[in-house]
Design goal:
This protein is mostly helical. It contains five helices and no strands. It has a single domain, classed as Ferritin, core subunit, four-helix bundle (Ferritin), CATH 1.20.1260. The radius of gyration is 15 Å and the shape is elongated.
């Protein structure tokens, strides 16, 4: 039942999602400055969503008959998201996370293409939902950086 092109793209989504989760949580913990409260809360909303997404994507990989990667070394080899710097200024954190939303959207687009090619509507639906969330997050972050 495994559809390798779909699961391989989902593994990239998983790696990007987990790395972005960790980075967003790092920034949640370490943000400072006059916008602390609003950024702290927004980052928490986003990393909480990413935690649920990681589980959903991993379970979809399993449902398709493949193993879901689950180690930092595997994610480090696969992710397109750069690690964060907890000492960054709050505006730089926001800009980085906004950029990361665009990065993960590209990864999701590749997964969507693979799912559509395989006529896998369930995976396509999952990916489109994630794209909707990341587009909204990008908008929120960009609006916070103005």
């Amino acid at each position: 039942m495994t559809n390798k092109p779909v699961t391989e793209e989902l593994k990239k989504v998983l790696a990007d999602s987990y790395t972005l989760y960790l980075k967003t949580q790092n920034y949640h913990w370490n943000v400072t400055g006059p916008s602390f409260r609003s950024l702290h809360l927004m980052f928490e909303e986003q990393y909480t969503d990413l935690a649920a997404a990681v589980d959903e994507v991993a379970e979809r990989i399993r449902a398709l008959g493949d193993k879901a990667p689950g180690s930092f070394s595997q994610y480090g080899k696969t992710t397109s998201i750069k690690e964060g710097n907890e000492n960054a200024k709050s505006i730089d954190m926001v800009k980085e996370l906004a950029n990361d939303q665009e990065v993960i959207l590209k990864t999701l687009k590749n997964a969507l293409d693979a799912a559509q090619e395989a006529e896998d509507e369930v995976t396509a639906d999952l990916v489109i939902g994630r794209m909707t969330t990341h587009e909204k997050n990008a908008w929120m972050l960009k609006s916070s950086a103005e």
